[in-house]
Structure formats: C-alpha cells, structure tokens
Request: fold
Amino acid sequence: MQINSKGFTAFAVIVMFAAIFTACGGPTATNTTGGSVDPNETAAKVNGKVITMEEVDRAVKQQAQGQENKLSALEVAGARLQVLQSLVEQEVMFQKAEKESPSLVPTDEEVTVEINKQKVESRLSVEDFSKQMDQAGLTEKSFRDSIKKRIAIQKLIDKVTGRIETPNNGEIENFFKGNPEMFVKKRGVRLAAIVIDPTDAGQGDTTRSDVEADQKIKEIIGKVSQPASDFASLAREYSEDGSKLQGGDLGYLSEDELKQNFGAQTAGGFMNPQFAVGQITNPIPLNGKAYIFKLQERIEKEETLTLESPDVRPQINKLLVDNRKQLLAASFQAIAMNEAKIENFLAQKVVSNPNELSGARPAGAPSPANTNSNTAAATNSNTAMNTNINAAANANSRTAANSNARPANAANANR
Reply:
C-alpha cells in the first residue's frame, strides 16, 4: 500500500543503459556553430583536468537527436553551456570521490561487471550493442570511463548520505499529523504493466516495428498465461518502459488519475468489481504502445489511513530519510563545487563575443522538435553523475528539510 506522496521525490540513481548513452552522447559535431570546431579544444578545466569540446558536442548531438545541424548558433551555444555545466559537476564529484578514499573508485573488474550488466539489461545482441556504441561515438575506453565515474560518484553519495539516522517515533507522528491529506487513499487501483513500444525509443528497446511488437506480445501472452508465471519477472525481462526496474509496478492510481492516464473506458474496466484482483488484461493499445496490465489491488471506496495502517510508518520513515539524503547530497555537491577550481573557457568565449551568435537557423531547416526539452534533458541526465542532485535540492527546499513535519493544521503545499 502506498500513501499519496505527491511533492516528495525519491532519492533515485539512474542506472539504465539509455541513461549512459544520454550522458555520453553521440558522435562529435563538427559544424554546429556555423564554423568548424576543434574537438581537442578545451571547453573547461576542473582543477586542471580538461573537458574537451569533443565531449561537449557528443552530448549536444545526442540530445538534439540528430537535428543539431538545424539549430542556430545561438541555440547550439545554449545547449553546449548546459551540457558543459553538467560535465563540470560530474568531474568535480568524481575528483571528490578520488580524493575522499581510493576504495570509492571502482576496480577494472567492478567496471567490467557493471558493463556486462548493462549489456544484459539492454537485451541487445552483441552486434546491436556495438552498433549503438558506434552511433553514440563511444569507444571502449570512453564507455568504461563513464561507467567508472558513475560508480565512484554513487559510492561517494552513499557514503555521505549514510550518516542519515532513522527518524524517531515522535517525528513520524508529527509528520503524520502535519500532512493528513497524504494519508487519504482514494478510490482507485494499484497496477503493474508490461509495456511494448513498437518505435525505437532507446532504453534497450528490442521492438522497432509493429511486426516485431506483435511477435513479442504473443510471446509475452504465452508466458503470462502460464499458472506459475511471475508477472514482475516478466516485466523486468520484456517491458520497454522505465517501470521494468520495479517489476512493472506503476504504483497506486486514483480513479481520476486512471482516467487521465489511460482513458475513461480503461479506468472503468479496472474499477468494475467483475475484473478480479490478480487478473491480467489482454494487450491494450494506449498512446502508441501496447500495455499488458495486472490488477494488484483495488480500493472500492475512499479510505482514511491511520498510523497503524499497513506500511504507513515505514513509508513515512522512507520519505523522511530520502528527503534528507537528497538535501545532504545537494549540499555536499554545492560545497565540492565551491572548493573546486573551475575554468569555463566556453562561457568566457560567449561573453567575449556575444554578437557573433546568430539566432537564425540554417536556410530551409525546420524547427527542431523539442529543442528546449532536449537541452534540458541533457542537463538533467548528466548532472552530477545521474543522481539528479540539483532537482533534489529544489524539491527539498520546499519540504521543511530539517524535520519534514508541518503544523497539524497546515495545508499541503505540495499536493
């Protein structure tokens, strides 16, 4: 049972195969600002360690999804600065891990184990995996370096946040009293899903056409229909959605949320008592994808939870601990950034030559799709070794981080 935790972001670490490629980007762009770019040119230095334009343009090209040549010089400059900031933060944290303790830096064997894990989770053939490596402009060395940094920084964050203590009963009770609306379980359902996407959306997708999707769906249906089948295991193996990491668990959805996400007809089907808990649906086409749902729980009427309701205390405990970890990690990174000697040559070049950046796109180039969201995604996926620390800081600044409890009559600002 999950409480309504809107406004509280879990402390998450992105470990998916796609995130690695997003962070590392694609092949080097050689003409993205109206002139040739020397890939060996220094974009920035972190305590003397060089970050090259090649690294920056890799990420820009990946985030522009092949449309970087359609961007104006002004747009490319903005994307580059965002990506570079993320690379700087990552390098600062990696150097901090190296300095903190040699044990935080993974061995070659650890890196190899993680790479093999990513290959398995990608569900790609050796040939397809190598092809994606080439398309991303990654060599074996650059791929290993990215894995090495990610592991080291995660170890560092785990060490730093390991000092967070378990909240006492008084704090848990105060949080419960201060957030009563979070503990009202509305009429709705808890779902799990196996999602098949016929488009090549990355994230280790193995279906790239309707034909391949149909074949895969038939295979999955054959397995989920077996009496001893484990839906969660099948979701981890077959689903082409981020929820696969949680065994397909989509969490608890109110009836209104069901309608918003999956339509009134689908919502009505799940709320119908004739559809039994534990039952699995046939494939349902939604938003260009195919969903195979399992109904895990249904609440027929609104229920007000108490501190003694199952899972309430553990979930409050988790919320408090996770939010403190987020804020501590963000604060640690801020201090590390302040201590580091950072020289941003790319930013200096923009300041020195602001009028050389044209806002005009190349002649005949249509507007790139989601330019802003792509460059924002570059920042989010790269920031501080994929731990979303900056987002965590923003979230926690709104959640009374010291105690996470509000007065009993306070309105829930995060709802």
Remarks:
- The two ends are 19 Å apart (CA to CA).
- The domain at 17-163+315-396 is CATH 1.10.4030.10 (Triger factor/SurA peptide-binding fold).
- The longest strand covers residues 289-299.
